[in-house]
Amino acid sequence: xxxxxxxxxxxxxxKPDRRFSVILVYGPDAGLVHERSRAIARSFVDDPDDAFQxxxxxxxxxxxxxxxxxxxxxxxxxxxxxxxxxxxxxxxxINAAIELLLASRPENPVILEAGDLAAKHAVRAGVEKxxxxxxxxCYADESxxxxxxxxxxxxxxxxxxxxxxxxxxxxxLGADRLLSRSEIEKLALYSYGKGLxxxxxxxxIMADASALATDRLTDAVFLGDSLVADQALRRSxxxxxxxxxxxxxxxxxxLLLAKSRLLLDKGQSMSDVERQARIFxxxxxxxxxxxxxxxxxxxxxxxxxLGDAQAACxxxxxxxxSLASRACLTLSIAAKRAQSGRN
Length: 343
What we know:
Rossmann fold; Helicase, Ruva Protein, domain 3; 17 helices
């Protein structure tokens, strides 16, 4: 079956259709992919904490035992009861084992948690053309998704947000579902017993020192101040921040700038572009300065540089700090040259 779309996705996550025995959850938002994979996998078993009911496997750890997925998928519990297999796909190719799953309907449901797969990727293409399999795409939260997420999490804690606080939260939260959920949970804990969350609560918790440090690094890099960028980066490392996460934050900003630059070049107003980009009002001036310096072609080069650096950080964490430093320096020099060209 082809991939689910629109409202069918949320309905399926809440109540998976048991006609499908192989479920692929994929997309660029790793947090949302994991959240949906977890919800689907847990819904198939009576006790999600029972390791004999919910079997978790990591594709990278299987090595030459990739066929274990098929064995587990067709193994019945000794004492009866439900079973589900939750497999996290990594960089190791285990396509052959998945092809076997798709060729014969397994006894137990198999949930495949994957990254951003291209339409022609063997796993995604195989799932989408198999009758007993279904693909669940997970793309970055859109502006219409965040209010629902905010309301759902706050309601779990017997809290609600005033309209101004809700708008501020929407502006501060990014497109990563896992990070957004973490930030809302943190705010809920801070506001325990208050009932109503106000803007000052949001600013006190969500606009924290870590976010300010990230903003300082982002501004220095995209405005061409290599000295300040280096200082901000060293401080982030000293505070224990992961190099790959830092590069990822810069990459998301570059992607946002590229999308916004494209809209501006098509004639949209800056106010409309900022609204679509969900720019926090205190970041508006910096955002406009970045857009004034970076042309679309330069942003595409920056995205390539940061994407390569992020991939390299994942492959070799020991070199993460050096890779992040080099990427920041490369972008800072490019911004400085653009600035000089405008003077």
